[in-house]
Amino acid sequence: MMYAIAATGRGGPDKLVEVDIPPPVPGPGELLVEVDYAGVNFIDTYERRGIYPVDYPAVLGREGSGRVIGRGAGVEGWWDGTRVAWADGRRSYADKVVIPASSALYVPDHIRLDIAAALALQGLTAHYLIRSVFPVTDGTTILLTGAAGGVGRLAAQLAAAQGATTVGTVGSQEKMAFSQTTHTLVVDDWSAVPGRVRELVGSVDVVYDGIGRASFDHTITCLRPRGLMCLFGGASGQVPPFDLQRLNALGSLYVTRPTLAHYLDDQEWRWNELIGHVSAGRLDVLIGRVAPLSQAAHAHSFIESGTSVGKILLKVR
């Protein structure tokens, strides 16, 4: 048997409990990995709350890092002891996890495993937002919510590397110091944001909004005609049904609700570029809190509190 944390049903962090379950067995094309760190992400809370359907009891965790300790049939090149990270796995809140070999991200020896775990899902998310959803170039103007969070800090740095000007929002004065954007706004009233953005940069080319319900109706009005609203999360709740005629009235706007899974065909390029930035000191990966796996419920409460900065990790070993 092995140790894991599972959600026993739909609800709050109290639904996360310690369990002993049979260790996973890798099938064809899969790796068995001993987990060092598991990343905590909003998608984990969505599954715990039942926003994204899962079968309970459910061991959560899409992301982590560790060392290969076994392989299924047909897997070559991933030997025991190889250091890997992953961003689209399952059941990572556990001693061991099985991931597709095609999803494994090689971690060079000079990159710490906690950094790799912090960079996997949020780094790849920031990369596809900045490099693919709206290919940011020199002169692009951006509005980015949650600028002190894990995705926000990385996205701001990647945007700056492309020559963009970014207005970021944070939820408190204390978070100002963690923002990497060109301009940073402390927001306690979302209705005031469009006016403040116009004073700083005029209208923007793209909005990256991970807040959702509380922010969406206001951030979308910051766009220039034919600008893009990219809704990539719902930290404040999910956006209610939306009247598409508003896109016409606001300037023939575009809206997308992307997910990382549809941008992983070229994950090797994305990962190598991220690792290159970290190695060269161009990308600062902030780990805001590391908690033991047994405190997963506290970690969920923390990420949902709106007070966290950077990445939250669970230390498995």
CATH superfamily of the largest domain: NAD(P)-binding Rossmann-like Domain
* Helix/strand order: EEEHEEEEEHEHEEHEHEHEHEHE
Question: How many strands, what sense, and barrel or not for the largest sheet?
Answer: 7 strands, mixed
Q: Care to count the β-strands?
A: 16
Number of helices: 8
| Alpha-carbon Rg, integer | 20 Å
Alpha-beta classification: alpha/beta
Quaternary structure annotation = single chain
CATH class descriptor name of the largest domain: Alpha Beta
Sequence stretches where pLDDT stays below 50 over 5 or more residues: none
| Average pLDDT, all residues | 95
Count of individual domains? 2
CATH topology of the largest domain: Rossmann fold
What portion of residues is helical? 25-40%
Estimate the global geometry from the Cα principal axes: globular
Distance between the termini: 16 Å
How much of the sequence lies in strands comes to: 25-35%
CATH architecture of the largest domain: 3-Layer(aba) Sandwich
Structure in a nutshell:
With 317 residues, this protein is an alpha/beta fold.
Relevant terms:
alpha/beta; 2 domains; 317 residues; seven-stranded mixed β-sheet; Rossmann fold; 27% strand; single chain; globular; Quinone Oxidoreductase, Chain A, domain 1; six-stranded parallel β-sheet
Outline the structure in words.
It comes from Flaviflexus equikiangi. Helices cover 26% and strands 27% of the residues. The chain is of the alpha/beta class and 317 residues long. The strands form three sheets. Strands 3, 5, 6, 7, 8, 15 and 16 form a seven-stranded mixed β-sheet that branches. Strands 11-10-9-12-13-14 form a six-stranded parallel β-sheet, sandwiched between helices. A three-stranded antiparallel β-sheet has the order 2-1-4, with no helix packed on it. The chain is globular and about 60 Å long. It folds into two domains: 2-107 and 286-315, Quinone Oxidoreductase, Chain A, domain 1, CATH 3.90.180.10; 125-261, 3-Layer(aba) Sandwich (Rossmann fold), CATH 3.40.50.720. It has helices at residues 42-49, 113-133, 150-161, 193-201, 216-219, 245-249, 267-279, 296-304; strands spanning 2-7, 16-21, 30-40, 58-59, 64-71, 83-86, 96-100, 105-106, 141-144, 165-170, 183-186, 204-209, 223-231, 254-256, 287-292, 311-315.
